[in-house]
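Fold Annotation — chain and its backbone

Encoding — discrete vocabulary of local shapes
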Amino acid sequence: MSSLASWVPGITAVRTYKRSWLPRDVMTGLVLSALLVPQGMAYAELAGLPAVTGLYTSILCLIGYAIFGPSRVLVLGPDSSLGPMIAATILPLAGAGGDPAKAVALASMLAIFTGLIMVAAGVGKLGFVADLLSKPTILGYMNGLALTIVVGQLPKLLGFSVDADGFLGELVGFFAGIWLPKIPAVLVAVIFAMVVSIAADLEARGVKLVGVLPQGLPQLTWPAVSFSDLLPLFGGALGIALVALTDTISTATSFAERRGELVDGDKEMIGIGASNVAAGLFQGFPVSTSGSRTAVADQAGGKSQLTGLVGAGVIAVMLLAVPGLFAALPQATLGAVVIMAAISLADIPATRRLWHQRKTDFVLSITAFLGVTLLGVLPGIAVAVMLSVANVFRRAWRPYQAELGKVPGMRGFHDTKRFDTYSLLPNAAILRFDAPLIFANSGTFRESVRAAAKRLPEGGWVIIAAEPITDVDTTACDMLDDLVADLDRTGKRLVLAELKDPVRTKLDAYGLEPDIPEDRFYPTLNEAVRACRDATGSQWQTQVREGTV
């Protein structure tokens, strides 16, 4: 039973549930249902699907996560950030006719693929893939996504349609179709919009309404899609899984910290993966964690996933007993719901802070933003991933380097770039290389050492403060071996201080010929510097940076 419970957290949740939680969980579930229904329908339409599929999706993903999800508070469901990605994947495959049944089948298969990818990644303990998207690129991607969503929903909000693909087409179409209407009061509560709709008989005036939803619950169905559609669906699922995982891990971590809990990224992947598979088998589409709905559940005092089950139950009762409850809801209101969610995705102040904090991160963010708005949603996520990976490679290729010296009034050795007055040894250069030493940066390291050695007189030492070097590959080992020999031929000496034992073991294991001499390694930087001073007779000499008094 304990082994099963480790894979099915819902078992532990039932066994440890406290009766005192029940009233609060039920009340929170009822509060959540007021958000789940309109948002579920709105995000379904954002994905290019019938509104009712959003309700089917909400029911099944909430049940799936209650069984397989490890968090007590996370709320899953249709998400505004996934809607455009779903639409970008399935609409080109649905055909010019836009057959709703085919679109639903494609979206369901997309959800199954997304779920299977996430479950496989969770079982394989690949939760670290969420790190493929850096914060600046996520920020830029979300800002671009927000703008794309808003522009795409404006025509619906104002009562006309635009036949265009992509952000630029939507934008041109919007300005071509806009008139000078009265300012629409659509950014109001859904209930108020329905009251206005009924009182003013908006349907008779040509306003599109949601209408009566199909009565009944979704049936277990294997999506009927053609073999040729599987590959593009799988490609779209990879991008959706990455975004959903990143969103889930960040949201889960944020709320877990408030509650003093820990996040198991691999179990979260399995939980959200199972929820996606469940949604896909019952005519649903891919889902993610909802930060806004999770915040509502947290603030309302929800104690367990019973809140989600109550919300799913409310939706099920509505579909069975009162499918016409939201019949009078204007389509424009769903557009307004999506726009409000899109606005919450954007974070302009954080983007502005990047400019002041780190210019390269700001450029990454803006590039990801332009990738989404100009190339499209799926290419945009590809751009964001490539930018993040390229940034990692850039930092590995050109890591931070420092020349160390003595600073008045401070013990140890310090980066001389940070101080106006410092002391150096005339016969030595103390260098620090802040990265693993690998094929990508071995050339950078070699040139830095050679440049430092060139400044030294004959008999000088280049001392590497090697503690930050956490790894070394075969290319770097060969480079080190050659570099030691090259400096020896010029009458200079390369030594390494504080090299970590695992890295030193790798140097020995690679079987260098000839081996780097044993006397080139020192356990501490102080010992290396002391040996250098004894051998060269060097004394510390004070340096004052140019331009300072």
